[in-house]
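TICKET: design request
STATUS: open
ATTACHED STRUCTURE:
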């Protein structure tokens, strides 16, 4: 197994993982920042006020982007299994 094959394989895996996690993480970040600014302005320091909107936003992002994420993951997995016989020994 050549080092270039291993590097390419793991680059694709990391890129796929980043692409699949980005929508939920970015929406959670935006909602968390918005809630933090709201808490700073109103001086409300309730921890559940920051947690609940982030959970709702992440679940919403998974519902909206879930089909795209699943399609991309199935495509990647299929490509890996199709290329498995050509892996250098």
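STATUS: resolved
RESOLUTION: sequence designed for all positions
ATTACHED SEQUENCE:
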């Amino acid at each position: 197994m050549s080092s270039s094959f291993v590097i390419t394989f793991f680059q694709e895996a990391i890129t796929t993982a980043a692409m699949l996690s980005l929508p939920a993480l970015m929406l959670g970040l935006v909602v968390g920042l918005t809630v933090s600014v709201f808490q700073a302005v109103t001086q409300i320091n309730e921890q559940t006020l920051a947690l609940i909107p982030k959970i709702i936003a992440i679940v919403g992002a998974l519902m909206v982007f879930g089909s795209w994420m699943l399609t991309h993951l199935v495509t990647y997995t299929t490509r890996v299994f199709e290329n498995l016989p050509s892996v250098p020994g």
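CLOSING REMARK: The mean pLDDT is 91. The radius of gyration is 19 Å.
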